[in-house]
Design a protein that fits this description.
The complex is a heterodimer. By secondary structure, chain A is an alpha+beta fold. Chain A has 9 helices and 20 strands. In chain A, the strands form 4 sheets. A 6-stranded mixed β-sheet of chain A has the order 6-7-8-3-9-10, with helices on both faces. In chain A, strands 13-12-11-14-20 form a 5-stranded antiparallel β-sheet. In chain A, strands 15-19-16-17-18 form a 5-stranded antiparallel β-sheet, with no helix packed on it. Chain A is elongated, with a radius of gyration of 25 Å. Chain B is built from 12 helices and no strands. Helix content of chain B is 80%, strand content 0%. The longest helix of chain B has 33 residues. Classes of the chains: A alpha+beta, B mainly alpha.
Chain lengths: 360, 265
């Protein structure tokens, strides 16, 4: 693995407010990497530091091995797609895209060729002479993307570029962005607060909270093996069940919950029998057992049943009063609100995380 | 008809007040213009015989043409100096946060509210203190000080509506701050600077008090007209005034059209 971007112990504070705290992050070349987190988590500050618009209070930022921590934006080979696109209103589409190329000192023939090549990539060849005000939101978005790609940056930074688009167009652009990333082979560093957007496009997701990295991994790992309550809640929905450890080995962990023994795929080697841990079970992993009172099934009553079209979401109250959310697909169960049911889940669908409240 | 007329009396009153104002504004001007066609050496109503002779005379008047050229030259110099300074100051104010920005803004606007007479006298005392002769340069300096606030206000209004990210985007794409200013900020300010420049031209051409105190022997247009009026009213003065009125009105209206058109883009 070759790291194109490295943050080494980077801290950025505005007066008393710490935006990014002791960040260590390394980003692999050629990947679509997303910084995901709620507003104020430090993701945009991280992006702006890499772009050169903020200078860290301490730490180093390396771009392809070179220290760029204090280099001004025009001296570093990264480009940003801004949230509001920031197209130059007095220049037409072609001149907008050519801006970075002209400053690199390319000949006008080379610039023209590159601009047309980029416009062809997003099917906007016929729009070269249009002014930004004459374009739709999606077209502006594409022009902003091409303008940032034009100077051939080592890393392309995208600062919530899809947030201004409506839901349908946003989904379309997610697919298109991913396709452009794959076609160009560029490293994309994408910032968003939308977990669905992150899951759709990313090779790697960096979940940030309070200026720190909570967890980093591919979308599948983050979803199925969250390592903190924050990540479990932020990405998708989760049932968080407090359980007691019976034993743990490299295969997984055995726990007791509601008087029965259950398994979880993640291993908690440091846990001792009797420790409290949080078991994470996704709503779609909940199954309705038909066998009745088996060793790993829990009795519950359906309190709420909401039809959502392609699935039905249910809220079930089990013995000790815990409420569990389940997502069932058509034909899986006929159970109605008020019915008594038996719930279970496969051990490989459950994971455990440290119980921070119990650990103190 | 009657019902319509009295149904909405406040509105009727407002409309009538407006037309009374227009009449009061236009009647003297019309009278002045009408007199410029009078075929006599004195001014009196009615016009009687009509003639273009006064215009022919004015156009052949070397003094008048010379004063025109001098006024235009001073206006041009004032405009260049005031718009450069004004944009510069507006940029400084826009990038200064908090109380300091407000102080800078108040200082920059001061010349617009200081009474012309006070400003003229103080400038006159100042230039004689530093041993600067009265004349062209002194007039340009006086006019520039007066015109700067108008450029500042117009440029600042436009700057405040400018998306912050535009300059960031230019910097990001490889422009240093100077290139970013000339290729992004300045074109964005274009319509505002254009409007401000027209303001400068009109203020400078129109200025009498500052020119009177700071000027040398060569008269600007308002000074020439003033001198002629002192020698007695004649339709020739009306012809001059009419020409000045037409030109300034045309420039003003064009400026309005120009700023409107570029703002709608």
């Amino acid at each position: 693995m070759q790291a194109i971007v490295q943050f080494e112990n980077v801290t950025k504070a505005y007066g008393q407010a710490v935006a990014v705290a002791d960040l260590n992050l390394s980003i692999e070349a050629g990947k679509f990497v997303t910084l995901l987190g709620p507003s104020g988590c430090g993701k945009s500050t991280t992006l702006r530091m890499l772009g050169g618009f903020e200078i860290p209070n301490s730490g180093r930022i390396l771009l392809a091995g070179q220290d760029v921590t204090r280099l001004p934006p025009n001296k570093r080979n990264v480009n940003i797609v801004f949230q509001d696109y920031a197209l130059f209103p007095h220049m037409n589409v072609a001149r907008n895209i050519a801006f970075g190329l002209e400053l690199k000192g390319l000949t006008s023939d080379a610039i023209h060729k590159r601009v047309m090549e980029l416009l062809a990539l997003v099917q906007l060849q016929d729009y070269a002479g249009r002014m930004p005000s004459e374009l739709s939101g999606g077209q502006r978005q594409r022009v902003a993307l091409m303008r940032a790609l034009a100077p051939d940056p080592q890393v392309l930074l995208l600062d919530e570029p899809l947030s201004a688009l409506d839901a349908k167009l946003r989904q379309q652009m997610q697919i298109e962005l991913k396709a452009i990333q794959e076609r160009t082979g560029k490293t994309f560093l994408f910032v968003t607060h939308d977990q669905e957007e992150a899951l759709t496009m990313s090779d790697q997701i960096v979940v940030m909270n309070n200026g720190r990295v909570e967890q980093m991994g591919d979308p599948h790992t983050l979803y199925s093996r969250p390592e903190s309550v924050f990540v479990a809640n932020f990405i998708g929905e989760a049932n968080l069940l407090r359980a007691k450890v019976v034993g743990a080995d490299v295969q997984g962990t055995a726990l007791t919950w509601n008087g029965k023994q259950v398994g979880a795929a993640a291993s908690a080697h440091s846990a001792k029998p009797g420790d409290s841990m949080i078991m994470v079970v996704r709503p779609e992993a909940i199954q309705f057992a038909t066998g009745g009172d088996t060793s790993n099934a829990f009795a519950g009553k359906i309190r709420q049943r909401v039809f959502k079209g392609n699935h039905t979401s249910m809220m079930i109250e089990v013995g000790d009063g815990t409420r569990i959310n389940a997502l069932v697909h058509q034909g899986e169960t006929e159970a109605l609100s008020g019915d008594d049911v038996w719930l279970s889940w496969k051990p490989q669908a459950a994971t455990v995380i440290r119980d921070e409240a119990a650990a103190g | 008809m009657g019902k319509f007329f009295f149904a909405d009396s406040p509105r009727t009153a407002l409309t009538m007040a407006y037309w009374a104002f227009v009449l009061y504004l236009l009647l003297p001007l019309t009278l002045m213009m009408a007199m410029s066609f009078k075929n006599a050496d004195f001014i009196a109503f009615p016009v009687g015989d009509w003639t273009f002779d006064w215009y022919v005379k004015v156009m052949q008047d070397r003094q008048f043409l010379d004063a025109c050229i001098y006024s235009v030259f001073i206006a041009a110099a004032t405009t260049i100096a005031a718009s450069t300074l004004g944009v510069w100051i507006a940029m400084l104010i826009a990038s200064t946060e908090g109380r300091w920005g407000a102080v800078l803004f108040a200082l920059a606007c001061l010349p617009a509210v200081v009474p012309g007479m006070i400003s003229a006298i103080s400038l006159r005392i100042f230039i004689s203190t530093i041993d600067m002769p009265t004349g062209t340069l002194a007039i340009i300096l006086g006019h520039t000080v007066h015109a700067v606030p108008f450029v500042v206000v117009m440029a600042l209004t436009r700057l405040r509506s400018m998306p912050v990210n535009l300059v960031d985007a230019a910097r990001d794409l490889g422009a240093d701050s100077i290139v970013a200013f000339f290729r992004v900020t300045l074109p964005y300010l274009g319509p505002a600077i254009g409007g401000g420049m027209i303001f400068c031209i009109l203020l400078s051409i129109d200025d009498f008090v500052r020119t009177f105190f700071l000027g040398g022997y060569r008269p600007t247009l308002p000074m020439l007209i003033f001198a002629k009026v002192q020698g007695g009213m004649s339709p020739e003065i009306n012809a001059m005034a009419t020409l000045v009125l037409i030109v300034t009105a045309a420039v003003g209206l064009y400026a309005e059209y120009y700023t409107r058109r570029s703002r709608s883009r």
